[in-house]
Structure formats: C-alpha cells, structure tokens
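Model the whole thing, not chain by chain.
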Amino acid sequence: MSSAITSTRHASCLVVTIDSPPVNALTEEILEAVAEAVAAAAEDPAVGAVILTGAGRTFVAGADIRMLERIAAGEEPPLRFNEAMARIEQSPKPVIAALNGPALGGGLELAMACHYRVAAQGIQVGQPEVKLGLIPGAGGTQRLPRLAGVEKAMEMCAFGEPAGAAAALEAGILDRIVEGGAVEGAVALAAEGVAVRRTRDRQDRLSDGAAAESLAALFTEACAKRMPRQAAPPAAVDAVAAAARLAFDEGLRYEKKGFEECLEGEQSKALMHVFFAERATGRVPGLPAGVQPLAVRAAAVAGAGTMGSGIAMCFANAGLPVLLADSSAEHLERGLANIRRNYEAAAGKGRLSAEQVQARLALIRPVRGYDGFETADIVVEAVFEELALKQHVFRTLDGIARPGAVLATNTSTLDVDAIAASTRRPDSVLGMHFFSPANVMRLVEVVRGRATAPHVIATVMELSRRLKKLPVLAGNCFGFIGNRMFAPYRAQAVSLVEQGAPVRQVDEALTNWGMAMGPLAVGDLVGLDVYWLIRQEALRLGIPHTPCASFEDELYKLGRHGQKSRAGWYVYGDGRRAGDDPEVARLVREYSSWQGIEQRAWSERDIRERTLLALINEGARILDEGIALRASDIDVVFVNGFGFPAWRGGPMHYAAALGLDRVRDRLQALYDAEGPYWKPAPLNWTT
Ligand code: 3H9
C-alpha cells in the first residue's frame, strides 16, 4: 500500500485517509492504493462501509499538477485514473466520501465515484481544470451532470468556479453537511444502513440530448466572452453535453480524448506554468536562515489619492487598522468618499454585508498631519510620483515613525535608494508598488533597496500575502520589472504608428492575440500626461531603450491626455468607448513627414513581432541584471499587472515556448537591419 494512505477502523467502518501533504494531490499510485483498500474492505466481513477522507485541511486538491506536466512532456505514460475510479464505484459495500476540506478537480471526481458525500461546513467543491487549460479527465464531465444536472455541471466545468457547501448540497452534489467532523458524519450515515448507489447509474438529472445541445450552445457563447480564445472551456461544455447522449463508459472515453487534447496543447502548459509561477514568487533565495518577519498589527498610509485610499482598503479588508493621512482636507474627504462608494458598491453586488462595510470603514481612520503615525508597524507612502516630494515625506516620516517600523513607498518607477537616503534608516525602507485599482489588483512589486534589511523584505512579502496580494520581489531600477518592460513595448507601438500603422490596427494586433488592452489604449487609460512625465524622468536619467521624443509627446502637448480629457490616441464620448480620430491620423502623418520617418504597410504579425520582441528582450535584460529573481516572476507580473494572457504563460514562458534560439535570430535580424536598439540580450532561461 502507498505510504500516502492510512486505514483505521471506526465502528464497522474502514476509514481510508489520503495523507499526502500539502494538499493530498492524486497520483496514479495514491489512487491505486485507495482502490486497493476499497477492494480489500469488500473481502473483509468485519467491514460494513468504507469512508474516504483527506488528512489536514484538504480532502483532495485534484490530480498532481506536476505529474500532469510530466505526462504532457511525454515523461510519464497517460493516466489510468478512470479504471481506479470504476473499481471504487463498483464496490459492493457503501463507500462514503467524508469531505474534510476542498474537493477540487480529481478530488471531486473521486468523491463522485463514491456512493455518498458528507461534508464539513465551509468546504468547497469544484472542477477548476479549465483554469489550468484542461477539462476534467477522471469522469467529472460525466458524473457531475448525473448528480447536479447538465446546466450546473456545464457552469462548473466551463468556468471552473468552486461551489460552497450549501450550494453544492442544493445542487445535489453533496448528500449531507454536518456540524462536526466529516468522518464522524460519514460514520453516522453508514450506521443508518445506507445502500450502495452508483453515480454512473443515475439518469434522473440528465437532460435529453437536444436540451443539452441547446444549453451547450449558450455556454459555448458565454465561454467565448468570458474566456476568449481558450480551448478548454468550450471543450468542457462539449464533454458535459456528451453525457446526455452517450452511455456512461462511452462518455468517459469522449471526455478522455478531450482531456488528452487539452493536455497536449500549449495553453495548458502555459496555465500550469502560471499556477506554479504564482506560488513560487514567495520564495526568496538568499534571505538568511531564520529571518523572522515583524508582526504587523497597525498600518498607516500617507496620501489619500486614488492609490492611497485603495491601499488603505487593502489593510482594512485584511482586518488591520489603518490611518489615512493627507495634507489636504479636501483630498482626504474625497479619498474617504471613494472608499465608502467602493464598499457600498460591493455591498450592492452582494459581495459584502452591511456589517462588513461598517467594520471595514471603522478600521480606516482619517488623520491630518501624520497624527498617530508613531503607532504604525508599517507606513506606506502614496503621494504624487515626484522624487523630491517623496523624499520630503520620508524625511518627515523618519522623524515620526517608531524605530523598526517598515517604511514603504508606492512609487511605480522612482529610485527607492534615493528615497531611502532621505532617512536615517534606509534598512527599513523598500518599495511596495501596488497596481491600480489597489483594492482590486493582486499584484504587488516589492522593491528591495540597496540597504533594505532581510527581515523587512520578509515582513512585506508575508504582509502582502496576508492582504491577499501576490508579491513579486524586484530589484531597484527605473520602472522595476513591470513598467520597465512595458516602456519599450509601448515605445514600439508608438513607433509603428509613426511608421504608418493605423492606431487601431496596432491595438487590435495585440488584443486579437489575447492582450486585455492594446498598448495605445492603455496610454489613454493611464493618462498620456503620466507617460510623458515618466519619459521625461527616464530621459533625465539617461535610461536606455526609451525614445527621447515620440509622437505621444505631441499628443500630450496638445492636451490630449487620454480618457481624462476625452481625447488621446482615440476620442471618447460620454463613456469609455474609444472612437477613431481622423485628426490623430492627420497629425501623425504630419509628424512623420516632418521627422522624415518612412511610411509602410504593416501586418498584424509584424506589429506583434516588434512589440513582443521589445518586451521579451527587456525581460531578458532584467533577468540578466538580477532585477527579477526568476523568469517566472516576470511572467507573474505581466499576467497579473499588464493583461498578458495567462494562457500564453507570460512573456518569458511564451518566448521559451517559441524557442529562445528563434527569438534570438529574429532580434539579431532586426539588429542587423536597424541597429543597436534591437541588440539581443542574453536569452538563456527555462520556465
Ligand atoms: C485535475 O485534477 C485533473 C483531473 O480532472 C483529471 C486527471 C486525470 N498538484 O495554493 P496553495 C501545491 S487538475 C500539485 O499555496 P492554498 C501548491 O503548488 C487539478 N501541487 O495553498 C503549493 O505548493 P508549494 C485540479 C499542488 O491553501 C501547495 O500545494 N485542481 C496542487 O492557498 C499549497 O498550495 C486544482 O486546480 C495540485 N493539484 O490553496 C486545484 N494544488 O507550497 C489547485 C496545490 O510548494 N489547487 N498544490 O508552493 C488549489 O486551488 C489550491 O492549492 C488549494 C489550496 C485551494 C487546494
């Protein structure tokens, strides 16, 4: 028997526990051992029923994703999960799944192969495979519609969102939710003398084939809107629809084929990469062993603008009291009004109760003149992006904050060391770059200064996770990881317009490829005034790969600052809908002819190649300089902060999947034709 399985007796029940930390992920060996234990129980006259549960906080988090990666790479043979599931389901004695924690993917599939499901309160069940670019592959698309109906099964398999215990009970997935432990609940159910009842034999909740096909058409359309260009969601819908027209075993074969096609595809490789990449960011090599994060019990935020008030919400959302200060009473009032509006909107959508809104608001205390800042364990500065101003604020904070408090700047580009140098405690200073809107976006770049102490880094990495953020450690340079890479990418987009590509064509070349927004439309959203300021600062510092002049400067000078002025690269009516502006086309022609820039036609492919090569090459430099700890951290930044499609894995994974030699050849060809801008950086990572 596998060492990951233990069997104990509870009255006449055999309790089989899967104990494979951290999350009881299934391998062939573990599932085989479960099936063997169930078969052995069938032969044992002293055993009346089998109870299957998980050790720790999880029932089973699904198939082992590392194992799936190896199978996809051809390093391991295809799975035979269905055979083991069938043996469990065929048991002549009742098998009861006792869900002590989440049952996801293969975990829910295993639970559904059992005859009954008893759950502890607060657990979740789900088929999240689509988030890994897969469809359920061990019977999920066939058993779930038999328990919960075709519509519910399509929803869960297509979108991958988990269902809470109460919803799962109502849907028919669970049989019972118990107050105490799941195993005790399952023992009680067994004592009632329940009979064997196989999910595969259920027909009562299956729609007829035609009704399932109509539902499938609706869900496929919804998938195209919610998860455009992804292969797995419509394939999952299709496999659930098959349950309504095929016999069970035939349905399983249909599902398996769909699962294997997805597993062989590039999208699942990219999404599995992102899954592990997001979990790797927290590991910081080189921190001294035993370094202890400081306890953070109270926070303070300096600056109540959009960023400052969003950051204050992050603390309050995590249950931490936070002071919010601004030198202007009007700004403070506006910041608080925004916070209130935000919480009320969340309550309006049913995401928060009225009591939660009140509790969170009560945690945010507005103050003038840094009143009470001496009590904070961390202060986050979020004032206007100007070095002298930030240095002034840090000088003041240095005189107020208690010794040992962490002083973080929310700068998005500026020199963290120059800010730290305005204090007498640079070891307590670091960057904490939230993305806008700070209360929504998960990404935080944690920027380590030259003097930042290891325990300060450890504190902010841990605190970020407490705030439910995704922290990525970055070195100190202009723009850190994200904005530094975004600059040459956007610069290429602008340059292509200067060379004759229509504005919309440039944006669509990238959105058609999967980017959430085009690079020029992003300019209008963020503000062309903001990008102008960044370019000026880059110019002042002599940052390479940032063009010293561009047509975007002209738009800025004309007062076309983007959405805020209703005109930038596009024009905006009342809403945010971007309209083409013939005036921009005229201005750019004039600009290019004045600059002597040659005009030509560009294909979407050319546009993508240049913008993405510029992005990847800068990523390679960042990696080479040690600004990012690993290539996958860069991917996490782009997927979570810049709308890079997760199913392409992030820029570094995408480049590696294309082949780094091929990327180098294309850069070299551009370098030979157009000069130093395209000089290939060292391209030698694996993701
Ligand atoms: C599937 O089941 C396919 C089947 O249909 C068919 C097969 C034929 N495998 O997230 P956390 C690791 S596909 C391997 O930080 P939390 C994770 O990397 C699978 N490892 O904890 C991390 O490792 P480390 C469908 C896994 O408490 C550690 O566990 N299932 C797996 O915030 C802790 O993870 C899913 O998609 C796995 N399946 O959240 C569920 N899961 O410490 C994926 C986790 O070294 N998992 N790890 O960095 C989750 O959603 C969350 O991990 C969970 C816990 C909610 C369970």
